[in-house]
Design goal:
Radius of gyration: 27 Å
Oligomer: single chain
CATH superfamily of the domain at 1-12 and 419-457 and 605-758: Aldehyde oxidase/xanthine dehydrogenase, molybdopterin binding domain
CATH class of the domain at 1-12 and 419-457 and 605-758: Alpha Beta
Number of strands: 27
Strand content: 15-25%
Length: 758
């Protein structure tokens, strides 16, 4: 690992940039940490869920009578047990949310929930589920963008008309909406090109692959309140969504966050919480529901499957002149694919004066998609970066030099509107170019691929509370679940602000009644936004303590200063007052010391990554082995470098799996054929080399510590980097992911038989 510091005015931090042991490390390694399925309450019941075996079917009838009389069964719910939000005038998003939790008149994908049972034991609940009789009228289904957009396609949601199309369509459609990014004169741009490359790419749905399955415990009170414990990336969002589906005010729901065993965007929505809540209300007992792996695959959101066409023009000296792209993104059964984010990110690393990007949000009979690290961006980058690589080959230019020639810099116009502030994309390119890995000679059947990626990152809403304890130590309470070491980051920023040892800071994640509102841990926003709230709250405590010291010394507050965790007089006439001394005297100076900061974060820093991958392809089997992998990414400022490196490496590993192995495989009936980690193969340690990292630090001027989010952009380049390496090794341009041995071998065979291997 290397850190490349681009800021020559580094003030020399004491704690930021260090690597202390994470505050929650002991609980995690000893098994004391409590995850979603670990909650056990007195009288707790176990839940089980009945799911649709069909991809698309009308529910003619549901008969629960036999199940209701079975041993141990205490409650059963179907869609009829939940409020009709349409009658209440709810918007489309809330209606989709509720129907995705539990079906009403029809099921829209295999795994769609039809009913749920609470019983004394899990075995009893599962037996009762099997006794529920559902009469289905099976309907035609669609599984891909092409199928869903066909003129004779069965319509998932009758009455839906495509938005943002002129003139307004008159026919129902599975295309929910169209998004467009446009600049300049496309025809003129292509006319100025010496080389034009156009290709179509496809990707399959892939799952985030978190190890911990979804779990929820709900305990309904006689007064109408419901206490929920769940593993999620945002318990305030879980509260709001659960209240929506149950038809109550959010403040009637209390959500306590469990530890989270992986999320990567897949735990931003509700699945079990309203079911457990309603079962608890009906039974009068706490209810726990835990998914198995089959349910996770079939009943929660993967990333979109996609079809993307990209056409790019360039001059012989490497100037990119125009880009046109058509993007079709599967939304799953309900609207909301990340196609908009795809159009925002796909060409952001490059300065294009002429472009047209058209994206379509398309519903299909698969689970509603969920976020997956930089949602929408990896698939779009796979297409664009593959075409950029092919252009470099055609004009005989080094792929990094081509990118440097067209790189976005401070002041460049982003396709989606703003001009970039200070960014570090060029620095990531130069870091890769100057690294020894980029010069290592390659052997037979080996290839090297380069790709870049972008994510805009998010700010959003955060709150934090800081308490000074009676011993002078500090408690920091945030409402952002810790999914990547954010407790350590919060402690480091608090320690740096106060000038005290990080061991004196205790960071906690509070429930929805303990701390102010926080948006989800997602969008690469937590260290930036919640860290900013922590810093502001700490500064408020410092101001308060300086005022109290001035009061103690009977002097003006302008005559005191804060130095290394204590207040001292400017003239040195009094012994300094430490935080512990000030805490012991707070009864004489105004009482306990606490501060809260709440904000909508501004000054978000965009992030770029450039990566290089070396592979070896077995020409007899088509197996691709990753030999070396190097990633350079602008972190702005690495608060805890170990966790920054971990984010870099984790994104790359998931991207390698996406490129080479992972995909949802469906039967002709629309059912998933590989809903287990035996058949859905994620990379394991033996599949991978060490992922080398370069932390580039171009501080974000909009953040007090220079932070840029790092959790997402790392997964954007790998699909293309691996594909470009395979192309370099084989002379075959693979455009369909994953590049499984069978697909690679087919391309090699086509090439040997006189084809182009594309």
């Amino acid at each position: 690992m290397a850190i490349i510091e681009q800021d020559t005015t580094n003030p020399g931090f004491k704690w930021i940039g260090t690597r202390p042991i994470r505050p929650d490390g002991y609980e995690k390694v000893t098994g004391k940490a409590r995850f979603g399925a670990d909650m056990m309450l007195p009288g707790q019941l176990e839940g089980a869920v009945l799911r649709s075996p069909h991809a698309h079917a009308r529910i003619v009838s549901i008969d629960t009578s036999e199940a209701e009389t079975m041993p141990g069964v205490k409650a059963i719910v179907t869609g009829a047990d939940f409020p009709d939000l349409a009658e209440a005038g709810a918007g489309a998003a809330d209606l989709d949310l509720a129907v995705n939790v539990i079906a009403r008149d029809k099921v829209l994908y295999e795994g769609h929930v039809v009913a749920a049972v609470a019983a004394d034991t899990r075995k009893q609940a599962q037996a009762a589920i099997k006794a529920i009789k559902v009469n289905y009228e099976v309907l035609p289904h669609v599984l891909t963008v092409d199928e869903a957009m066909a003129s004779d396609a069965p319509i998932l949601h009758p009455g839906t008309r495509t938005k943002n199309v002129e003139p307004a369509p008159e026919a129902d459609s599975n295309v929910i909406s169209r998004v467009v990014q446009q600049l300049g004169d496309l025809d003129a741009g292509f006319a100025a090109a010496d080389v034009v490359v156009e290709r179509t790419f496809t990707t399959k749905p892939v799952h985030q692959g978190y190890i911990e399955p979804h779990a929820a415990v709900a305990d309904a009170m006689p007064n109408g309140r419901v206490h929920v414990w769940c593993s999620s990336q945002g318990h305030f969002a879980m509260r709001t969504m659960t209240a929506t589906v149950l038809g109550c005010d959010p403040t009637r729901i209390k959500v306590t966050p469990a530890e989270i065993g992986g999320g990567f965007g897949g735990k931003l929505s509700i699945y079990l919480e309203p079911l457990a809540g309603r079962l608890s209300q009906k039974s009068g007992r706490p209810v726990r529901i835990v998914m198995n792996r089959d349910e996770v695959f079939k009943g929660t959101g993967p990333a979109s499957g996609t079809k993307i066409t990209v056409k790019i023009g360039a001059t012989n000296d490497g100037k990119l002149t125009a880009c046109q792209s058509w993007l079709g993104y599967e939304a799953g059964a309900f609207a909301g694919s990340p196609v908009g984010a795809a159009t925002m990110t796909m060409i952001a690393p490059y300065q294009f004066e002429n472009l047209l990007l058209e994206g379509y949000d398309v519903v299909v009979n698969k689970p509603k998609v969920a976020a997956y690290r930089a949602p929408g961006a990896p698939m779009a980058a796979f297409a664009v970066e593959s075409v950029i690589d092919e252009i470099a080959q055609k004009i005989g230019m080094d792929p990094i030099e081509l990118r440097l020639k067209n790189a976005s810099v401070e002041g460049s116009q982003a396709a989606y509107g703003p001009k970039f502030p200070k960014i570090g994309y060029v620095e990531t390119l130069e870091a890769i170019k100057n690294h020894p890995n980029y010069q290592i000679p390659l052997g037979p059947n080996q290839g090297r691929g380069v790709a870049s990626g972008f994510w805009f990152n998010a700010g959003m809403n955060s709150s934090a509370t800081v308490h000074l304890n009676e011993d002078g130590n500090v408690t920091v309470i945030v409402g952002s679940p810790d999914i990547g070491g954010s407790r350590a980051s919060m402690a480091l920023m608090a320690a740096e602000t106060f000038g005290i040892d990080v061991a004196r800071v205790q960071p906690l994640v509070g429930d929805t009644e303990t701390v102010g509102f926080n948006d989800v841990t997602g969008g690469s926003r937590t260290t930036l936004a919640t860290g900013q709230a922590v810093t502001e709250a700490c500064e408020k405590v410092k101001v308060d303590l300086m005022a109290r010291a001035a009061k103690t010394w009977n002097c003006d507050v302008a005559d005191v200063e804060w130095v290394d965790g204590q207040v001292q007089k400017l003239d040195g006439s009094e012994p300094p007052l430490s935080m512990a001394k000030l805490a012991r005297g707070w009864g004489r100076t105004g009482g306990p010391v606490s501060a809260t900061a709440s904000l909508n974060a501004r000054g978000v820093g965009s992030a770029f990554s450039t990566q290089v991958c070396d592979v070896e392809v077995d020409p007899e089997t088509g197996i691709v082995r990753v030999l070396r992998y190097l990633t350079a990414q602008d972190a702005g400022r690495a608060i805890h470098p170990s966790y920054v490196e971990g984010q870099f490496q984790g994104g790359v590993v998931q991207g390698i799996g996406w490129a080479l192995n992972e995909e949802y495989v469906h039967t002709a009936e629309g059912t998933m054929d590989n809903p287990s980690f035996l058949d859905y193969r994620i990379p394991v340690a033996s599949d991978l080399p060490m992922i080398d990292t370069i932390i580039v630090e171009v501080p974000n001027p909009g953040h007090p510590w220079g932070v840029r989010g790092v959790g997402e952009v790392g997964i954007v380049p790998p699909l293309a980097a691996v594909a470009n390496a395979v192309s370099n090794a084989t002379g075959c341009r693979l455009t369909d992911l994953p590049m499984s041995p069978m697909r690679v071998l087919d391309a090699l065979n086509q090439k040997s038989n006189g084809g182009n291997g594309h």
